[in-house]
Design goal:
There is one protein chain. This protein has one domain: Neuraminidase (6 Propeller). It has 3 helices and 26 strands. The strands form 7 sheets. It has a 4-stranded antiparallel sheet, with no helix packed on it. Strands 5-6-7-8 form a 4-stranded antiparallel sheet, with no helix packed on it. Strands 9-10-11-12 form a 4-stranded antiparallel sheet, with no helix packed on it. It is globular and about 55 Å long.
């Protein structure tokens, strides 16, 4: 009996060591020269940001550059950050795995801009996943994806402080990756294929509408309305489309843009810079794509900045900009055909690591499996 048990445990060792489909580690390329699961790129208050989630870092730059060595590091010790926002005074980013928000202030020294941390806001629920700023209320809002808490913050004496927190029972405990503010409504996307439209300005979150989406958008990530009025949705694993109305998604009256734009991997948080929609993608490939939209002629929707295999992983387009990471074919690839882009992990992160289903993340200091 004991011999059989020992044999069974030995058979399990390779399975346990894979740790959620984790690819093998290779260190033939410096990890800082690559992206690993980017979730956001945006230009906020004149500063460019890249949130590079599974490298646990946020990069920033005064000017866009196709060379990551030109970008500076805001942090590379956050636990899987996902987003950043600003009220014009300071920036707020989520430290998802540790349940915190961090506030940083922009300081200009001569011709250079630097960012200095002002305070850390703890107890932001379980896995705060998205932070946004609303000009109408002059407040920040964040959502804790696992504990379904909506938290409102304000600026006070140069720091960010919690003003109000609300547990959203209407989310029914479903993982909710993002909230967006469009007009005078808040929209919360959940992993059951639902968008909840609520009030928010008075600190009360009354549900006005619930949109049930088709299966392609079941694992929702983001909702965004462009300056031309289009609604865009992104979802795992290959959901990206647009419609003139949210009802259009529910009834099937929407454009599926995933293939038309040549997206690779999972599309994430959508932003808009200088009239271009910016969409990060991750998993099978890691990078960003940008495109212009035409509000009247659907045939004008096209993919810009095609991925080039001739350059290492960055592509610069003279008429626009784009960042891309296409894994190269090599003898040293994972079982899924993907090269590892993992950074060497600090002892702190290693000791706090957790494994979650369907993640090629080596380590996240979180109380729940990473998502």
């Amino acid at each position: 009996m004991r011999r059989n048990l020992t044999f069974a445990l030995l058979l399990l060792v390779p399975i346990l060591c894979q740790c959620s489909h984790e690819p093998e580690l290779t260190f033939d390329e410096p990890w800082r020269t690559r992206l690993y699961a980017p979730t956001m790129m945006d230009r906020i208050d004149g500063v460019w940001f890249i949130v590079d989630t599974w490298h646990h870092r946020i990069l920033f730059a005064d000017e866009f550059s196709s060379d990551l060595s030109d970008w500076r590091t805001l942090t590379e010790s956050a636990a899987g950050p996902h987003s950043i926002a600003s009220d014009g005074d300071f920036f707020l980013y989520d430290n998802t795995g540790r349940g915190e928000l961090h506030a940083v202030r922009k300081v200009r020294l001569n011709e250079d801009v630097t960012l200095t941390e002002t305070n850390v806001i703890p107890d932001m629920g379980t896995r705060p996943h998205r932070v946004v700023y609303d000009e109408a209320t002059e407040r920040f809002y964040t959502i804790a994806s696992l504990s379904q808490e909506i938290i409102r913050l304000r600026s006070e004496s140069g720091e960010a402080v919690v003003e109000h927190r609300f547990h959203a029972p209407f989310l029914n405990g479903v993982y909710s990756r993002s909230l967006s503010i469009i007009g005078d409504r808040m929209y919360i996307v959940s992993s059951n294929g639902r968008i909840s439209e609520t009030t928010y300005r008075q600190g009360e979150y009354e549900v006005l509408n619930v949109y049930q989406l088709p299966s392609k958008f079941k694992a929702m990530i983001d909702i965004y309305q462009s300056s031309n009025g289009w609604y865009y949705l992104s979802a795992k694993p290959r959901g990206f489309g647009r419609s003139r109305t949210l009802e259009g998604f529910a009834t099937g009256d929407y454009e599926d843009l995933y293939g038309r734009l040549g997206l690779k991997g999972i599309p994430y948080y959508i932003t808009e810079v200088e009239g271009r929609l910016v969409v990060p993608f991750q998993e099978t490939a890691n990078g960003f794509i940008s495109f212009e939209e035409d509000a009247t002629d659907r045939s004008q929707m096209s993919r810009h900045c095609p991925i080039s295999a001739r350059r290492r992983w960055l592509t610069w387009c003279a008429s626009s900009w784009g960042l891309f990471d296409r894994p190269k074919k090599s003898a040293r690839t994972s079982a899924h055909g993907r090269r590892s882009t993992n950074r060497p992990l600090s002892p702190e992160v290693q000791s706090a690591s957790k494994c979650g289903p369907r993640n090629n993340v080596r380590a996240i200091p979180a109380s729940k499996p990473p998502r």
